[in-house]
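A quick aside before the break. I want you to see a complete sequence-to-structure record at least once, exactly as it would be stored in a machine-readable document. Don't worry about memorizing anything.
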Amino acid sequence: MNDCMMSRVCIFLLLATAAFGAQIRLYLKDGTFQPVREYEVKEDRVRYFSTEREEWEEIPLELVDLARTKREVAEREATIKADSKAQAEEDAALETAAKEVEMVPTANGVYYIHGDKLDPVKQAESKLVGSKGRTVLQVLSPLPTITGRHTVELDGETSALRIDEKRPEFFIRLTEDERFGIIKLGHKKGSRIVETIETVQLTKESTEKHDDIPTFRKQEGDALFKIWPENNLEPGEYALIEYTENKMNYQVWDFGIGPAASPDDAPKKRK
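That is the input. The structure line, written in tokens, reads:
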């Protein structure tokens, strides 16, 4: 545990200790109360230390609403214990998160958080597909002169990386100060579609479309982010992408949720 966490724990324990030793309301049956530091029942009397007069005093037990006094003390102690537990859980989560960040390699790329270890995700090769064939996209290459409709695709209908979790978490260490996110891949026989690009011939203006997944993101360092989906992912094919708009510089790390689909999974026609 680092010094910052140790300081937080120490401060909380001091506050909790002070709260346990704080003023108690010794309730009387007439609705009033005596502010006391502590009290004890001695046969037919209640002996208490008055915080107002800083001395021990006694009062007949029949005048004291002991049940209400005990109930309030128990409620206060329960609150303090609950707060202490929540603080301990938060500190443990912070410590675990700090250890995760320390495990991330310095190399750019994507890392799947798998239990207490990180698994590097292999970068996929994306291709620009149009009526004239396929072109492999190179990182940081300029936007090709294209018109009409094209798609950015990955070979194969399923990813080799299969994940059972419905809300997987990843670290991504960016290559440049670029956009990134998780997308759902489109299906095409023999490949998966990352994005569709529509380019107007006269104006050369392009519209890029991909199926974004809502995500949570947390920056953990310089160009280092943790990313995970806001909601459970349905079984299917997905990818984490890093890109700059209007440049064919997609970096794609693909993965699948659940078992890989097979031709046998398709609905069969009735005979």
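Two observations worth writing down. Residues 66-103 form the longest helix (38 residues). The chain has a mean pLDDT of 81. We'll return to this after the break.
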